Amino acid sequence: MAKKKEAAAGGTIKITQTGSPIRREKDQRATLIGLGLNKMHKTRELQDTPEVRGMIRKVAHMLSVEG
């Protein structure tokens, strides 16, 4: 329960797209778009939730994650 409160209180995670979605599966491209990434070297700061972590895990080979 404490983890959910931390995430809601402003726990964020910074992700940067380092790999190209060209020649990737459609679901991986859709996951990048869901994370708000669509161009190389674009960075987003998102809430640290289990849903976001699952999406990051799916396309981890194309991302750089901080914090």
TrEMBL record:
UniProt keyword terms in alphabetical order: Ribonucleoprotein, Ribosomal protein
Source species, domain of life: Bacteria
Pfam families assigned to the protein according to its UniProt record, in alphabetical order: Ribosomal_L30
Entry keyword annotation includes Oxidoreductase: no
Chain spans, region Disordered: 1-23
SUPFAM superfamilies, alphabetized: Ribosomal protein L30p/L7e (SSF55129)
Gene3D superfamilies: Ribosomal protein L30, ferredoxin-like fold domain
Domain Large ribosomal subunit protein uL30-like ferredoxin-like fold: 13-62
A GO MF term: structural constituent of ribosome
GO CC annotations, alphabetized: cytosolic large ribosomal subunit
Subunit structure: Part of the 50S ribosomal subunit.
Name of the protein in question: Large ribosomal subunit protein uL30
